[in-house]
Amino acid sequence: MHAMQYEFTLPADYDMGVIRSRVARVGHLLDDWEGLGVKTYLLRERGVHGSPVNQYGPFYLWNTTEGMNGFLWGGAFQGPVNDFGRPAVRQWTGLAFEEGAASGSAPRFAVRHRRPVPDGVELAAFMSDAAAETGRLAAQDGAVLAAAAVDTRAWELVHFSLWEHDAPGADGDLFQVLHLSAPGRETLPRGRQW
Predict the structure, then answer these.
(1) What does the pLDDT look like over 70-89, one tens digit per residue?
(2) Can you give the residue ranges of every domain in the chain?
(3) Are 101 and 138 in contact (CB under 8 A)?
(4) How much of the chain is in helix, strand and coil states, percent to nearest 5?
(5) Which CATH class is domain 2-192?
């Protein structure tokens, strides 16, 4: 599993209805994308649910690098690049994935929690704890799914979770979910990924 996210931070007075309309118009285009586990079309709106910014930030869980590369280099990614400019694309290697207690529900919210992997920690123990935290998140009431991944260049851990309600049991940046494409969700590897 590979995790990926890019973000477009928009002006404070930006009409976020434009993003909602865009997702309503094009969100279905990845509903059957080969190699994609899950894509969540995410929105943060300044002043709503504590967000300090207007931001569009899709988050992906990929089953294959071929699917991810096909998206990035095959033309689909060019649409948002043309509309908003070329963003930095963060990528993390998968550590763990779990279906949630509310896995059959449509997610309304997502939480992304990024934090550094501290210097001096034993990596095996730290990553095992991160995988266990993924299971703890997924077991909470209202959790649709949870994942953990790490960027070994920046030594950054990310926990990502989807929720059916707006009071999730996770810390981090809260996003509204506008659409979920999940053509390969059932084939994302469960549990710890090493």
Answers:
(1) 999 998 999 999 999 999 99
(2) 2-192
(3) yes
(4) 25, 35, 40
(5) alpha beta
